[in-house]
């Protein structure tokens, strides 16, 4: 988003269950000083696309691994999958005075503005981010259309005025599954095997071409 800032490429690891849905990026503690960032700062995470998240320190076991832990929603907005390398750098974020979102399908929510305010409170967002919400057991995508004041990113708080457009927008969804690995609880070994089955041919198609698969 901005030039002249310290940039680091980190390996994407899945978020731990307690961090899912919080809009945070847990960064290798050894990298935090290199990037000149502090806990609570906002960083840009860029893969095939770009998004933002709030910095939290990585777990002790993450030190010197060169990793960033982000959940499926952030990976989707960054256009990244697990084990990808993404660019991470600090960005300037302001408190949002106003935020406009639009659904990707016809949608009306009674008390929608207040509901969204609760979901997005203390979350960092940027234009084009997809926010997934749950309505009566159904997952619905909302797209960040605009915000004030002008900034690279904004942080939503209780004072932010949130508007949900009734007019749907056409949005090319990221080519990532809406059901993420974090959605599957208590099956760590099984999930690892499924990941290998799905991601290996996607990341290394040449291996399967040689095998005639």
Automatic annotation (TrEMBL):
Coiled coil: none annotated. The keyword Iron-sulfur does not apply. InterPro entries: 26S_Proteasome_ATPase, Asp_de-COase-like_dom_sf, Cdc48_dom2, CDC48_domain_2-like_sf, CDC4_N-term_subdom, P-loop_NTPase. GO terms for molecular function: ATP binding. PANTHER family: 26S PROTEASOME REGULATORY SUBUNIT (PTHR23073). Residues 108-171 form the CDC48 domain. Residues 9-93 form the CDC48 N-terminal subdomain domain. This is AAA family ATPase. Keywords: ATP-binding, Nucleotide-binding.
């Amino acid at each position: 988003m901005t030039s002249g800032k310290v940039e680091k490429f980190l390996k994407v690891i899945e978020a731990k269950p307690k961090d899912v849905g919080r809009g945070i990026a847990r960064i290798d503690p050894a990298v935090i000083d290199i990037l000149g960032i502090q806990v609570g700062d906002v960083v840009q995470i860029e893969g095939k696309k770009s998004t933002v998240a709030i910095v939290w320190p990585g777990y002790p076991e993450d030190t010197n691994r060169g990793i960033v832990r982000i959940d499926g929603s952030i990976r989707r907005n960054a256009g990244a999958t697990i084990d990808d390398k993404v660019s991470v750098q600090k960005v300037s974020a302001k408190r949002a005075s106003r935020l406009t979102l639009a659904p990707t399908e016809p949608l009306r929510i009674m008390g929608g503005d207040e509901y969204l305010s609760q979901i997005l409170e203390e979350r960092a967002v940027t234009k084009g981010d997809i926010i997934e919400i749950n309505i009566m057991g159904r997952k619905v995508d909302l797209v960040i259309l605009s915000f004030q004041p002008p900034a690279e990113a904004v942080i939503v708080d209780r004072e932010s005025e949130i508007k949900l457009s009734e007019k749907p927008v056409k949005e090319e969804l990221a080519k990532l599954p809406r059901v993420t690995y974090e959605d599957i609880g208590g099956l760590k070994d099984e999930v690892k095997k499924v990941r290998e089955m799905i991601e290996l041919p996607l990341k290394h198609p040449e291996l399967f071409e040689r095998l005639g698969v």
